[in-house]
Structure formats: C-alpha cells, structure tokens
Amino acid sequence: MKERLEELQQEALAKVEQADSVQGLKDVKVEYLGKKGPITEVLRGMGKLSKEERPVIGQLANDVRESIAQAIETKQTALEDAELEKQLEEESIDVTLPARPVKVGGPHLLTSIVEEIEDLFIGMGFEIKEGPEVETDYYNFEALNLPKGHPARDMQDSFYVTEELLMRTHTSPVQARTMGAKDGSEPVKMICPGKVYRRDTDDATHSHQFTQIEGLLVDKNVRMSDLKGVLNAFAKQMFGADREIRLRPSFFPFTEPSVEMDISCKVCGGKGCSVCKGTGWIEILGGGMVHPNVLEMAGYDPKEYSGFAFGMGPERIAMLKYGVDDIRHFYTNDVRFLEQYHKA
Predict the structure, then answer these.
(1) Residue that finishes a domain, picked among 90, 120, 149
(2) Per-residue DSSP letter, 298
(3) Which residues, including other chains, have CB under 8 Å from residue 185's CB and lie 6 or more apart?
(4) Helix 22-33 vs helix 53-90: angle between axes, to the nearest 10 degrees?
(5) CA 137, CA 160: separation in Å to the nearest integer?
(6) 40 lies in the same domain as 174
(7) What is the pLDDT of residue 3?
(8) Are residues 146 and 283 in the same domain?
(9) Residue from 217, 210, 225 nearest 191 by CA
C-alpha cells in the first residue's frame, strides 16, 4: 500500500507539471484528490492493515495528498500569472498616442441668453420671479386691464384648457401675482423669464411656443425717464456701448403711455441697410408706464404709486445678437447649429 501511494504521488506530480491550463489542473485535482480518486480507494483498504501499520499509512496518505495539493496550487499561480502577462501584452496601451476627444455638452443658446439677461438685471437690483405656465383667465387678462370681451384679447390668440384656464400668453401674470402678494404697500422690482404660448403659424420669425422676459418696477415717483435709463443700460450691456436706443409711441392695454424700443442697427451703424430695412433702427421690445387700472387691481393706490413694465423675447435678442435667421433653429435641436454657440 505504501508503494501504491508513492506511485500515485509520482503520477499526480508528473501530470501537474505537464498541465498547461488552469482547467487541466482542475482535472488533475478531481482525478487524484476527488472522492472517487485512487488515493481514496487505497485508504478504504486500511481496514486490512495491522494496528501498527494504520497510522503510518494514514500519515503517508495525508502527506501525499498535501504534496499533490501544494503542487497544484503552485502551478495554478504560475499559470494565472502567465495568462495575465499575456493579456497585458495583448491589451497594452500606447500612452503616447493622442487621446480620443470627449464631447462635453453645454448650455443651449437660449439658456445662455436668458442667464445673461438675468445677470444684467440682477446687477441693477431686480429680483427673478416665476409663475405657472397654465394660468387663470383672471391673471392672464383681467388683472392686466383686459376684461372679458376686450378687443385687445384678440392680439394674443390663446390655447384654452377650460373657460377659465389657459396656457399663459405672456409672463405678465407673474407681475400681477407678485404685486397682489405685496398688498399694495411694498415696492416691486422684478423680472420674470419663462415660456409662453400663442396660437400661431410656425415660420422663420414666429412660433406657437417661445420665451419671454418681462420686467416691472413699482414704487413712489417712478417716471418714464427711469424706464428709458434701465432700457438704455440693458441695450448697451447686451449689444455694445455704441448702441443707441429710441422709444416710439405704441399701445398695450396694461401700460399707459406705451412705447416700442428700437436699437441702432449694428450692421450699418444707423445709416440704413437691408437688415434694418433702410431705417437704421431695429425693433427689440415694448414697454411703458403701468396702467393705473392694473395698479389699482393689485391693491396699489395709483395716486401714490407708479411704475414701469417692459417685455422682450430672448429668441429675438439672440437672433439679433448672433445673426440667427430662423427662430425654429432654437427648437429643432440640430447639433450642427448648437455646436456653433457652444462655449467650452
């Protein structure tokens, strides 16, 4: 039995040495150290041995099993190291090669314009206010001096959800809500950017959904000259210190008097060209003094308080500032267009 164990040990160690894969080692281990292996078969015959021989053969069997297991473990480590080395050689990376460029996203052009405008007005002491896009008829129209049946409602063809709910047609309702929350006793100085909705045919200059930024200042002794000063500072910071502005009489139901503001054409410097249609001026926004009826409905005494309001479209400002010729570019998400205005 001793000779048989030594013979099995030599056979197993020889096969371990010849094994060229981890799977081959597992097969050797199962073959010699498994429950049905030859070493186990030898041990089953120990019952026929004398009491003196049993511990000697038992110790020898354990030594054989341990030597085979140790050899398998050592060989397995060597094979795994070799496989890893081979893998590293095959998958080696040339660190001297230029890296592949990683494209990083950035703010949308409209987002950048809105944030730039917000920064300008925050610098002048204005707060940023927001409101719901699904608005009540009262705040969208009535609180802004547009009672039911008023012909000026036709200027803003609306998306109605119910008879009293609609998609807001401008961000002026935020102004009405903000003034109403002040109970007619505190000044208001705010701008309200956001999306607005009107039933319109989409083309190069119109969209059924667009962005609007409206501003409002209500306090004692507010005059038209204050409005002009704010808009003049805005135009010069947004379009350049050499830009001039002019105010033309206009009509809006919620302001009286009302004005349209033009800026001098940057292409011709005010001399007249095809961009400004020969006038030297380009219309950019509307505004005026807050109508006394609007102040009164918000709880302010028109004899004590006055204010100005204005509204602009970031899309139009972006089109003028960057020469974009179609408003639909802002919403179609063409990567070729967006990449032109991406700031790394």
Answers:
(1) 90
(2) T
(3) 299
(4) 170
(5) 9
(6) no
(7) 72
(8) yes
(9) 217
- Give tens-digit pLDDT for 180-232: 998 888 999 999 999 999 888 888 777 888 999 999 999 999 999 999 999 99
- Domain extent, residue 151, equals 109-339
Residue list for the binding site for Mg(2+):
256
Backbone φ, ψ for residue 287 (5° rounding): -170, -165
Q: With 50 as the cut, is the pLDDT of residue 293 above it? A: yes
Annotated binding site: 256
- Under 8 Å between Cβ of 204 and 325: yes
Query: What pLDDT is stored for residue 344 in this prediction?
Result: 44
Burial track 35-67 (b if 16+ CB lie within 10 A, e otherwise): eebbbeebbeeeeeeeeeeeeebeebbeebbee
Q: DSSP secondary-structure letter at 135?
A: E
Average pLDDT over residues 77-92: 82
Q: Is the pLDDT of residue 336 over 60?
A: yes
Same domain, 73 and 146: no
Confidence of residue 46 (pLDDT cuts 50, 70, 90): low
User: Cα–Cα distance between 202 and 209 in angstroms, integer?
Assistant: 9
Question: Do residues 86 and 172 both lie within one domain?
Answer: no
Does residue 62 sit in the same domain as residue 34?
yes
Structure tokens at 64: 């054989």
For residue 193, being part of any structural domain is answered with yes
pTM above 0.70, yes or no: no
| pLDDT reported for residue 155 | 67
Both tokens assigned to 83: 């496989």
Give me the mean pLDDT over the 112-140 stretch. Answer: 94
Residues 251 and 301 in one domain: yes
For the chain, how many structural domains are there in total?
2
CA distances from 69 to 13, 63, 107, 215 (A): 9, 10, 63, 83
